[in-house]
Amino acid sequence: MLTKIQDLLFILTTLPDANAVSLYDRLAARYDRFHRRWLMRAGEESLAALRGSLAAELRPGMHVLDAGCGTGALARWIADMEPGARLTLVDLAPAMLERARTVPGRHVRADLLALPFADGGFEIVICAWALETTGDPERALAELHRVLAPGGLLCLCFCTAPQSPGSRLRSLPLRFSVARFFNGTFLHLGFPERLATRSLRRLVSRRGLASFVCWRKPPEQGSLIA
Q1: Radius of gyration (Cα) for the chain, nearest Å?
Q2: Contact, 168 vs 176, CB < 8 A?
Q3: Which long-range contacts (CB under 8 A, 24 or more apart) does 72-78 make?
Q4: Listed residue (82, 90, 99) closest to 35, CA to CA
Q5: For the segment 172-218, what is each residue's pLDDT rounded down to a tens digit?
């Protein structure tokens, strides 16, 4: 109970910050607790779908990129699931990346809008709950596509705006909190349209507030445009 009260006081006394890096640096110590609450309210189905896809795909020696790794919770799960995976963790907030240091792998401070990696360097690229914080999700998507190897798997989890008026009204306080205190936007349910639909799978949570997208890059190096 005391922890919940402290977290509430932290939110109430924290002013919005247009600088996402400093915002997430301040959030780092509490982020996992906040994120668990988000998952319970909206994102559990999307995360379960993501983990299921990864469990079926991971193999020893695979190069895996966790773009926007945060505190490393998902990367830690991957390392436990497949210790032989060759993980690269990327985040722009130093305090978040520091909390992921215990995860085995390469740790890189970088912007999702300009990833410092060669084309096609990763067989699996993951971006969970980070696209909506970049300010330019389409550009971030293009970067994720660029570093994904032909035949590789792209897995995304992101916040989405519900369609029905009732769902929009009921979720308004939660969406306001995510936007104000976590610099997150709610992407439309069709995002991303630019990926070829023939190899795309999508799951939208029952509340419509979170989506999972899984996409296989064609074996030939192709354009992002479908």
Answers
A1: 17
A2: no
A3: 72/99, 72/100, 72/101, 72/102, 72/103, 73/32, 73/35, 74/50, 74/126, 74/128, 75/100, 75/103, 75/105, 76/100, 76/102, 76/103, 77/51, 78/54
A4: 99
A5: 888 887 777 778 888 988 899 888 777 899 999 888 899 999 999 99
Instruction: Using the Cα atoms of residue 50, residue 51, residue 56 and residue 62 in order, give the sign of their dihedral.
Output: positive
Three-state DSSP state, 69: coil
Q: How many CA atoms lie within 13 A of 60 on its CB side?
A: 2
Token digits of residue 79: 């390392």
User: Tokens standing for 121?
Assistant: 């360097």
3-state secondary structure of 19: coil
Distance (Å, whole) CA 6 – CA 178: 18
Q: Which residue has the tokens 């992921």?
A: 100
DSSP 84: T
The closest alpha carbon to 160, from 145, 175, 170, belongs to: 175
